[in-house]
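ugh finaly. both done.
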Amino acid sequence: MRSEPPSAPSPEPSPAQGDRNYWPASPIRSGGAAAAGTRQAAVAEDGEAAAEVEYGWPRPLFALLQRLRPPGPLFTARLWRSPLRGPWLTSVFGVVLLVGLPVVIVTGLLSYIAYQPQFAGNAFPAQTHGLHLPFFAWPTRPVWLYRLNQGLHVAVGLALVPVVLAKLWSVIPKLFSWPPARSLAQLVERLSLALLVGSILFELATGVLNVEYDYVFGFDFYTAHYYGAWVFIAAFLTHVALKFPTMRRSLKARRLRDELRTPLARTKPEPLDEYGLVASDPSPPSISRRGLLGVVAGGSLAVTAVTVGDTVGWRPSALLSARGRSYGTGPTDFQVNRTAAVAGITTTETGAGWRLTVAGQRTISLSRTDLLAMAQHTVRLPIACVEGWSTEQTWTGVRLRDLVELAGADRLDHGIVTSLERRGAFSRGVLNAGQLRDPDALLALKVNHADLSPDHGYPARVVVPALPGVHNTKWVSRIELRQA
């Protein structure tokens, strides 16, 4: 009897044939030993180790951790089955963060320098124990310098929120792998990763709450955000040093252009990796990588669209502005950071009896009428706040350098500007010599050709090019000039 030759196995349907139900078999489930062997430890569906795991010193401790795995699916491979996760996708998000986060870091550190912390009481935190950029006299040119710096800090930081969340989603199997470490080296790496994740979430959360003026935390924002930034910087630099070679290799494995052309029907898992990001038993995809990247990019664009109006001065688009989009009518219809009522300023203090004292080599006292009788200078300048909003208005008043000349300060080093406001972190501010002598630095009496309103600093306020908004002191009562 003739035996029939063994039939060849029927090929799996190809995605090119248009079968939308096509799903490639997992290498582990189909017996792909070579692919499965790329794992450091092959994991069966019940999450138990399928092969002997090697532990570093002290071996008994790490082996004990393996046996003490918490109950539930959180620390097992069964929960993390997305077919999109893998080193390439994580590296794409990593590249975006590698470009964007340094912008946020540098502008944040420069923002602190813009407060001139070399002058006592001028910046918070007052003491940084050497954790700062080198001090230098903050310039007044270009006039939009602080507006650009803080606008970039807030706008880029907010735009990166969806990217950070997507990056954390892409590595979440790694965050919940068990045991958390198999050697001391891995333990150090995991601790640095915990610092990185914790610090970036802390910085984003406190930053967003500050932008929205929602201080639900019971600590000083400036101090906590500043020191949190240095924790993040250290963890970020460590993570980049450790993972940059892996990111380069992963990005070379696939082309972004090809992924952007791949529809859902042809979306396949990445090859099993040694880092445990790729699911060993992936579920069918519900979205393509192209779709996921589009969702993240769209989220960043949406956040930018409803917030950047505060920075560029187009308030109708600033739908999430904590200061609203209207502040009244007329020439004083623009942002107010602190009202006269909140600052405790009364009409008795700002009425006819108000006097400005300028103390230098001579001490002079000037009424508002005296100031209006002096040479007036008009200039259009922006005011930018640390929260990211800014406004550009036309200011009229007396040049600060004219007041310096009246009081006399041959060896001027800096000036202390004091407000009628008796409480508040910024009831006084220090200006360096360059700021006091700038031709556009004013003791402003009017804005947009109208008298200042009480909320905008009547009877007089400081307006200096490129100065952080809170140091454009309102309700000025005294300017004390200090010699070098």
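ok and the 2nd:
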Amino acid sequence: MNDLPSVCDNHTNFFYSVLDMPSEELGASAYRKYDIEAWMPGRGSWGEVSSLSNCTDFQSRRLHVRYRPSKSDIPTELPASAPASLPFIHTLNGTAAAIPRLIVALLENGVFFSKDGTPAGLSLPVALKPFWLSRHHGRNVIRWDS
């Protein structure tokens, strides 16, 4: 969960903020939650583009999902109060990318202007280049930034 900022640093060309959400902002299932917000100049504010929650065993208890520990994880002598059943797994619940808001952030932060103030093109992260389907048609409006 703590590697989220390094992914953004290496692959985006916009300002972002990682928020460790306070407990009053968490849903019933979340023990801890991180949000990544991107600056959206058109809004004049930040917009959430990704989210990740540690739900501990809340979801797995409702789904009855358990795991069998390996032999090395089981102590040789179990205390008298040890549960006889298998432990519940812990789950993460995340939104990899809120695509519409991510596109807005890329477009609004990536536009560059000519000397007369008109939009001249778009600067996009080089990580997106393999997915770009457009071919050049006389104007080179995309600039790939690394």
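summary for the 2nd one i guess: The radius of gyration is 22 Å.
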